[in-house]
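Reader question, answered in our methods column.
A reader sent in the components of a multi-part assembly and asked whether the whole thing could be modeled at once rather than chain by chain. We filled in our standard form and ran it. Here is what they sent:
COMPLEX SIZE: four components
ENTRIES:
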Amino acid sequence: MPSSAKRSTAAPPAHESPTYPEREARGLALWVALTRAQDSVAQHSAADIARHGITGGEFGILELLYHKGPMFLNEVQKRVLVSSGGVTYLVDRLVERGLLERRLCQSDRRARYAALTRKGRALLRQVFPEHARAIADAVSALTPEEQKQARILLRKLGLGAKARLGPRPVGDE
Amino acid sequence: MPSSAKRSTAAPPAHESPTYPEREARGLALWVALTRAQDSVAQHSAADIARHGITGGEFGILELLYHKGPMFLNEVQKRVLVSSGGVTYLVDRLVERGLLERRLCQSDRRARYAALTRKGRALLRQVFPEHARAIADAVSALTPEEQKQARILLRKLGLGAKARLGPRPVGDE
DNA sequence: ACAATTTACCTTAGTACTGAGATACTTAGT
DNA sequence: ACTAAGTATCTCAGTACTAAGGTAAATTGT
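And here is the structure of the entire assembly that came back:
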């Protein structure tokens, strides 16, 4: 039964890992934990969403419109984590399924806004509470207090990291 | 200059958002903060890595082998967040670039292990410390104490969520 | 009024994967 | 030895995007 134990007699040679200064080690450990946690919860989310034949990106748009109401596509793009081409692609697919409508803006003919159809609204009214429960279950390893604390820390982390993205390093290099 | 302000006279109608029980609202807020934070830091990581013409997945494998030494491909697959086909694909590309070698296992001819070439090791020796600094910068909105706390919470969250994935809901539907 | 710029959205080509199934080998049982 | 089952890896078709560039409409400056 120990199938790979036998093989390990021929396993690659041992190896010494380099070490890093405390600041770097701390940052890396946080980054790894952050990615692993996100991935695990994302799998819960995706599994729940997939039951309805929708991808995460599609659900993001549906959910946004369900909660915030009809919205111009450029505003949609700012709020979800996909590119502008991605919004077009996702909205196309949702329109094909009859969950979403594109409507023209009268005062600006470049602009369109997206709105849920009755069918889309009905779907989300049914699906979203279940989804919320699935997410709440997924994060329930943390107590309510810990969840609040984690949210505060993550918000600070996320906003800080985002702010550091824009300003290009000028000067040396 | 307020370009979209004009348009908002024709904007979609206001809308009432549904509300949810506290437990769900808390979980969703945490999930959003988690995803946003991960995305922002991931952009720092990707930007740093891209300077060397490598993707995140490729870097993950290189970094793993750099720190842990040669390893069987199935072990690699367990440690990075990609599928088995993905590992093959990524390793192929790294081999093509001369950064990695596939070696046969003598006692089990099904198995192969991957090892950095001298060139790969040299690349990572140069690149990884910079990368560690980039990540440390990206998360530096949190104090060292906050980073530790966040790491602990995220680890608990991630492991808990992962543990809840396996057990399939048996029974109805 | 007219060119230049900006903004909004879409199209196209390409990328980095995933998932299912195929292949090749090993192990266990008879 | 032969069969069955298990494991390690690869192949290939398909997916969900991204990035760059294009078109149309609005805005600005002259």
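What stands out: The radius of gyration of chain A is 22 Å. Residues 3-4, 55-57, 82-86, 89-90, 108-111 of chain A lie near DNA strand D (CB under 10 Å from a C1').
Send us your own complexes using the same form.
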